Amino acid sequence: MIDPHVHLRDFELANKETIEHGLKVAKLAGFQRVFDMPNTKPPLTNKEAVLTRLSLSSESVKKYKVGYHIHMGLTADENQIKEAVNTYFMLFPLVVGLKMFLGHSTGNMGIVNYEEQEKIVKTLTLAGFDGVLTVHAEKESLMKNDLYIKGKGETHSLARPNISEVESISDIIKICKDTGFKGTLHIAHISTKGGVEKVLEARREGLNIKMGATPHHALLSIDDARNNPLLKVNPPLRSEEDRAFIFESIINGSIDNIESDHAPHTLEDKEGGASGLPGFSSMLILLKKLRESGVSEERIELLFGRSVLKEFKLDDEEIFIPNDIDRRLSKIKDEYPFNPF
To answer: Would you call 265 exposed, middle or buried from its count of C-beta atoms within 10 A (0-12, 13-18, 19+)?
Structure first.
């Protein structure tokens, strides 16, 4: 299996998780590769930070035999964008793609201005970037952060409403069309019916666009957040209608792959309102649910790795899908202070 979206912390956030620990748990869960995100502290926005991160991971990669890849982050600085493209070409497939946050999330790397988003994609296009551009799609101007009330988990969905995701996806699709973007646009952790429909419409119109969904957006809803305020995540848990639509879109082939958005915190940070959930066990639980729903092993293999290899232009390999899910879940159940399931 491949998890194309994790946040393994480390650096100044090693109290939350180290790369070594993350890869150990990934191995126990049955993952062959993970793709780490750039909103670390400090962020992965220059070649030196990326090389430091890869060096930090090297012993754990050898120890656990889990492939470790990085998304390098993008800023609005033109020279930084060009450095990111050069680093991608130099270090691919260790640097497997580039990441842009279209709204602020953990790490405050958001590029919230439409003109700056357009400038970034235009610069990528002119620089010849033809890889995967992964985006966190939430439109900052449509968020209503004052509606969030600590301890009331359902209010996070009001603060970051559906329209924020849908309009952000609409913006980045228009930008990629207008700039003639040559790579693959990947919408990460899609969470709304409207967002999926926007992607499918763009796909029908010829845009090279993919989307991934998380176990928590497929299996949990705002009702769960209402009962447990620790289920705070960006984008937030949505309505039961959205959840059911995401689950069905995974089954019917609309959604391309499953990604955990694994983002562990200390229990103290979660109780203080931090957004993010550990995800390796959730991936196994979703795998189990899909099998119980009659999804074919061929489709499961696509969702949990085969489509990732194709999208990110990685060498073909056998995708191992574990059958001993309960045993693996029992091995990792105590690895994090809070688990969403």
So the answer is: buried
281, 333 in Cβ contact below 8 A? Answer: yes
- What is d(CA 5, CA 261) in angstroms, rounded to the nearest whole number? 5
Residue 162 near residue 187 (C-beta atoms within 8 A) = no
How far apart, in Å, do the first and last CA atoms of the chain sit?
20
Known catalytic residues are 261
Digits of tens for pLDDT over the chain (341 positions)?
999 999 999 999 999 999 999 999 999 999 999 999 999 999 999 999 999 999 999 999 999 999 999 999 999 999 999 999 999 999 999 999 999 999 988 778 999 999 999 999 999 999 999 999 999 999 999 999 999 999 899 999 999 999 999 999 999 999 999 999 999 999 999 999 999 999 999 999 999 999 999 999 999 999 999 999 999 999 999 999 999 999 999 999 999 999 999 999 999 999 999 999 999 999 999 999 999 999 999 999 999 999 999 999 999 999 999 999 999 999 999 999 998 88
Buried b (16+ CB within 10 A) or exposed e, 307-334: bbbebbebeeeebebeeebeebbeebee
CA within 13 Å, CB half, 328: 21
Q: At what angle do helices 19-29 and 325-332 cross, to 10 degrees?
A: 160
At 335, the amino acid letter reads E
Q: DSSP character for 315?
A: P
Model-wide pTM > 0.90 = yes
The CA distance from 339 to 280, in Å, is 10
